[in-house]
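R.M. (postdoc): so does anyone remember the format we settled on? I'll just put the structure tokens first.
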């Protein structure tokens, strides 16, 4: 029901209105991309400005007549609004325009339905769609009366609308239970990674910023990457080996967008939790986008909503190949810590700088020392080797082991405690 798509693009008229009392007005360019990503064929973009939305039709009667004329002339099949419409506004617009009307939330849900590939992703999208649809059910059932009485005609005493709402509620509860199970499985996987001290790094960012291209470049994976909005919907995890840190898990996640429907954020809690519980976020930014700063702010808003705004974050300014003067580099704060990396994932420029910056940020809790282990501390030496912490071993003139170490500080302190030693007792080479 939710994943069947027409073979050809539907002729669409787009509507974008700026409001005088809003500071975050944006042009219709992104909405045009959204429509194309959904498979629509935009033939006209109707723009305008108002003090506030009309309660009945959202737009004024003059603008409504303009839209209707274009719909008739172009034989449009759907009118897409770059705004959130109330159910009554959608009904009123459809009755005048004589075609389907879809708001921004419905359009994004449609794109997500097309992109979902995994069982979990489809469940998440269906949940968001059902919740969105539940407020609009009356549109499809206004022509039905209460079920009639009489022999062979007695019903349960519900209108068709009430029956359908009850079925919807049952389906929503069923999906929520299944997603809770998925969430539990993800939590179990995260706990297992935490116990094994494998750091998790999540790629986050505005849709079409190049996250999947960077993910493929860094890990050698073949995640679907395309120059379109929401090319990636289902999360993908891969192991990555970094020289200074060892094994890390890199997660590619769904892209964010301005005015991301709250229902989608709620439905994708299990997926987004992967980002919220990461050790490091890589905030991928399209450096060549003229709306770069606004996109960064939109991503930070969603990160705050999912409780990930306090996590260590490294901004990755991607697509520098589209900037004539940009060079690959690392920008640092006043303490010398990396805060931004400039690169091109598509061209493979600056990837080594990204790995260097990640290693610096994750190695704060890494012990990288060369120590001297006396002959009588063989158990200590053996435990370091068992942990895989020894990167090199030589011997001094007294026959003592000189070990080059690299391991998490937590593991190092645990080994010292097990052999009854403290860091003060360790001799540096």
């Amino acid at each position: 029901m939710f994943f069947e798509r027409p073979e050809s693009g539907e002729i669409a008229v787009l509507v974008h209105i700026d409001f005088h009392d809003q500071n975050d007005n944006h042009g219709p360019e992104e909405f045009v991309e959204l429509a194309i990503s959904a498979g629509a064929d935009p033939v006209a973009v109707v723009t305008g400005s108002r003090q506030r939305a009309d309660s009945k039709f959202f737009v004024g009667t003059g603008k409504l007549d303009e839209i209707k004329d274009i719909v008739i002339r172009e034989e449009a099949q759907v009118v897409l609004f770059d705004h959130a419409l109330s159910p009554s506004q959608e009904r009123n617009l459809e009755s005048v325009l004589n075609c389907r009307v879809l708001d921004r939330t419905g359009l994004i849900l449609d794109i997500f339905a097309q992109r979902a590939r995994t069982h979990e992703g489809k469940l998440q999208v269906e949940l968001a769609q059902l919740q969105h649809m539940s407020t609009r059910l009356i549109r499809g059932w206004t022509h039905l009366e209460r079920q009639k009485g009489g022999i062979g005609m007695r019903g349960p005493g519900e209108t068709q609308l009430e029956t359908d709402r009850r079925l919807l509620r049952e389906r929503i509860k069923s999906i929520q239970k299944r997603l809770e199970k998925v969430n539990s499985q993800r939590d179990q996987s995260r706990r297992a990674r935490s116990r094994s001290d494998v750091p998790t790094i999540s790629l986050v960012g505005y849709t079409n910023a190049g996250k999947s291209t960077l993910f493929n470049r860094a890990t050698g994976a073949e995640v679907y990457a395309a120059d379109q909005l929401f090319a990636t919907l289902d999360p993908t995890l891969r192991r990555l080996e970094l020289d200074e840190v060892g094994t890390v898990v890199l997660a590619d996640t769904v892209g964010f967008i301005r005015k991301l429907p709250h229902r989608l954020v709620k439905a994708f809690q299990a997926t987004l939790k992967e980002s919220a519980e990461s050790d490091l976020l890589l905030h991928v930014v399209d450096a060549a986008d003229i709306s770069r700063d606004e996109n960064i702010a939109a991503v930070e808003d969603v990160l705050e909503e999912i409780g990930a705004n306090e996590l260590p974050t490294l901004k990755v300014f991607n697509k520098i190949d589209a900037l004539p003067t940009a060079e690959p580099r690392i920008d640092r704060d006043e303490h010398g810590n990396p805060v931004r990396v400039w690169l091109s994932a598509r061209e493979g420029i600056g990837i080594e700088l990204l790995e260097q910056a990640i290693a610096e940020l994750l190695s704060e809790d890494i012990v990288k020392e060369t120590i001297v282990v006396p002959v009588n501390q063989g158990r200590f030496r053996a435990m370091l080797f068992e942990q895989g912490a020894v990167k090199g071993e030589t011997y001094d003139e007294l026959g003592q082991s000189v070990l080059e170490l690299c391991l998490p500080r937590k593991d190092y302190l645990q080994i010292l405690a097990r052999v009854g030693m403290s860091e003060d007792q360790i001799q540096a080479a």
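R.M.: ...and that's the designed sequence above, right after the tokens. Also worth knowing: The longest helix spans residues 160-195. Confidence is low (pLDDT under 50) at residues 1-8, 139-155.
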